[in-house]
Amino acid sequence: MLTEWLLDGNLQDPHHEFFIAADSSVPNERMWHDKYTLRKCMLPSFISLKQAQKVLATGKSLNFLRHVCNFKSAIGDRDLIQTAVGKTSVESLFNQNESNQLDDLISLTFHSSSSHVLEEILSRHKLLEHLTALRKYILLGQGDFIHYLMEILAPELSKPASSLHSHNLSFILETAISASNVQYEEADILKRLDVRLLECSPGETGWDVFSLDYHVDGPIGTVFTEDCMRQYLMLFNSLWKAKHMECILSATWKQQAATSKLCRDLPELGDALHCIQLLLTEMIHLVQQMAYYMTFEVLECSWHTLTSNLTMAQSLDDVIEAHAQFLKRIVSGALLDEDSREIRTHLRILYDLMVRLENLQEKLYYAVVNELNARKTAHKDLKDQSETGNARSDSELKEREEMRRINFSSKFVSDFRSELFILKESYQDMVQSFLLMLAQNEDENLHLLSTRLDFNEHYHRKDHRLNLRLTYLHKRKIIVWIHFKHFEAFATFVKGTSINSTYIIKYI
Prior knowledge:
This is Gamma-tubulin complex component 3. By secondary structure, the protein is mainly α. It contains 20 helices and four strands.
């Protein structure tokens, strides 16, 4: 039974005596993960768990090649393996301390079948190319494509989510592909790239439900499982939201610059414009630093680790584990794991406040344009009245215009300042809480992010807890606490032993 499994992946076990079990109901798409399992209760005493795992992986690899990769020809090393099986005696099963025949046979078959699987999935099915495509499009690594796609999608995604149609978005996607370097990608990758609309809730726009999708099937589906693709989708939504904020703030900055030029004749709006400029600069700084953190400290570092692990992989299980660790790191770094729920909530609120600033700036722009047009019209009417020589009408026009301007200053300008002040205070309070959460997190990269977000200590001066977190004394307290925890573990270990107190003091 062992020979048939190692040579051909055949499992004939009608009485369930073998230590490998098969579930015939599992489809080929889940063959590697679910079809074959170890039955540890049936493991013979002369086969170790490590050897059994290699035996399991060997037969799985042969079946994977045959049923998933459609590998028809025989493995090139089969004759060599069959010769090795013929030279392995039955006695070697029970005398492994004296003979390495069985261990050598298991290692030979494992490495042979695993190398064929790796060659199939990495070379023929181009796993690395698909990983790169996911990085470029789902993780927004292809800058020119993502920027242009967002630009031409903006009018469509600004509509209510319920009014969107996938075929319209697919056409826009094709336009973005043909207008960027993505057009030079391989045809197999381009046909997998698609759009996807998430379930929408009342009040949501297209920005909330739009997503890029990447279809996977065949052998690469063994690595890119449904759970993995859900994580990619979650990462895309987070990165897309951050990129959308960049576009919003960029457009707000342009409109704010235009508004500043228009307000040269409206000095009553000077302090409000200055406040918007400062608040907008704070928001731009936060978004840029978050983008830097995600791009270089999370994605690039994780990608480097992934490629290094893939070059050292000896089996498909190593590839799957390397990819799973890659996803785990970037999900955690993107603040999408369970431990970062509160930080993530604060970040979303900050994004909402950025949208509110965009609305306020747009409101100010149209109010300024209307006010300037009204003043221009009033000036023209006064000029016309002066030419006709009607002094009474001229006086009435001046009085009416003066009242209108007073109403503008007392009503609109006052209300606008109040809204802006509330927005500013809300944003800065949320940033202070956000920085404090980052500084108290166990991840050192988040500590550095907190420092960069407040590089000039603007927020530290408002919250003494932030100052305390970054002082040398506070860090020393943390180090002492860690050492104390180590001592507690050591004391628990030596409790009840003959180690005397002098040795413990030296340890401290």
